[in-house]
Amino acid sequence: MTWGSITAERIAEAETLINVPLRRDRMQWIEAATRDTVRHFAWGIGDDNPLWLEVDYGKKSHFGCNLAPPCILYAVDNTVVAPKLSGVQWIYAGTGWTWFEPILMGDSFITEVRLIRQEVKRGRRFPLWVLQTGEVRYFNQHRRLVAVAIGRCARTPRGDKLVAERGEGAREGAKPHHYSAEEIESIERQILAEPRRGDRTLYWNDVAVGDEIPQVVRGPLNLIDIMAWYAAQQGAQPYGGVHGDAVRYRLKHQDYHLNKATGAKESAGRGHLEAGTG
Prior knowledge:
Elements: H1 8-15, H2 35-44, H3 50-53, H4 55-59, H5 73-76, E1 89-99, E2 109-121, E3 129-140, E4 145-156, H6 160-166, H7 181-192, H8 223-233, H9 243-253, E5 257-258, E6 265-266
Antiparallel strand pairs: 1-4, 2-3, 3-4, 5-6
Helix pairs in contact: 2-8
């Protein structure tokens, strides 16, 4: 069985896991919404909402305590469901969320995770690839369902495997956009103009069809933004950790990036910290 290849046999092997409960030992960064985890997640996404961060503000709210940003559940389980196909890279392809309850300070969580669908795809960029769809169900300490996430991962050829299929042109990527001073000034102006409702509750009968939802502007995305997200949401866990943990993970899963300059095996996620940094 060739490392990193997508074959009918390996696709069929992954398909045997559909609707089978999956272990999540490497996909969980936090277990509970504590003051520290909520604060660090809010800092990591650049959200200074006092409902997450200020104790006195939270006490005066309808809930009587601080809440956590709903997307902190990404740190409870990162929604990546990509079993089998060792050595084949997974590319995050989006998550659909349904929330049923707010996340209160002090809530803790357990998850139930399964692969629910697998589709074989073909296209111009990847001659053969697989789209895996997973479901993550989040329960709080009262066993109440807090949210359901339906996440998708594209399993695609990596590096030399793709070049072998498509030729050297497969290595070419899009060049980063160079922002003018005027563009940067416009983006910063929009960021600072983001409206805040604060404790002014918006009721359903105050909203009409066609009302415009205020936009939330972010960017340009930079290396520190990405590092802050990693620190808040997952660390290095999905890529096996660091040092001895990383070696043991790579031996088990055969999931790594080969650094051609050094010959060393490195985290498969290193590309997130390289693009557009020149």
